[in-house]
User: Fold this.
Amino acid sequence: MNSPLDRLTKDELIVLFEWLSTNEENENVTFSDISELAVLDRIHGILEKELAEPFSSDWGDLQKTAGGNPAAWRNPRSGT
Assistant:
């Protein structure tokens, strides 16, 4: 079975990883059930293992590029 994450572009994965990293300990993010947090934590772990970009020296630039590409969000398959 293919992972639903396989359908996301690299830019989308970078944005998701950063959001999960930033909001993992954020008390302002609320969940209706602890299982929601558990699933997001699992996805974060998968991305942490699979993505090399968050650990590269140009991570900040990669984040800006990934999040700042509106054309890619309108047509995700045309991106990286």
